[in-house]
Amino acid sequence: MTKGIKLEAISRTKENGKPNKIRSQNFIPAVLYGPSTESRNLKIKKIDFEKIFAQAGESSLIDLTISGEAPAKVLIKEVQKDPIKDAIIHVDLYQVDMNKEITTEIPLHFIGESEAVKELGAVLVKNIDSVEVECLPGDLVNHIDVDLSVLKNFHDAIKTNDLNLPAGMKLVNETNDIVVNVIEPKVEVEEAPAEEVPVEGEEGQAGGKEGEGEKEETEAPEKENKKKE
Fold this sequence. Notes:
This protein is α+β, with helices and mostly antiparallel strands.
């Protein structure tokens, strides 16, 4: 579990809380909510949040301090981005109850090398890059490792039930979907070039010319003989 991630925020009021003005000052508008807290409008320094988001993602606990208050355990629940500039424009933070289970997405981290890919030329197919889990907030991890070295032969696969989940964590979806597998590469068959079909009449014309030439060669000696006579 990632520990010691800290983030500071400032309470946002009607006077200092207009979103466009906040963004122009290099802050990000945010809202905090949870089962045991009232919703609060906040603003967070843009540079601070981007650094924490890169480190924590959406599956690590963060100690959030609001205007000098005691830290609260929160998760980054949703990040909204500008569709054109791809800049973060709003953040939802969820304050957790450490004694109640939560449901969240944990990203998968693929490690190792598949022998089937390395030795047999198999194609690696990744079908899932995260899994939805249920656990107490204290059991959260920032990723789950998936060891590709167990994929040794064509058609080997790792399914969700094969994942090595941390203690206290369970899958929400029990369909046992394929996470990653290896398949045989497709063999491209080259098509034979099409035979050229002669245009009708070409062979006859060519033959006729050859015939005329041969006729001239056979008739020439006869003319010579007549002159001698």
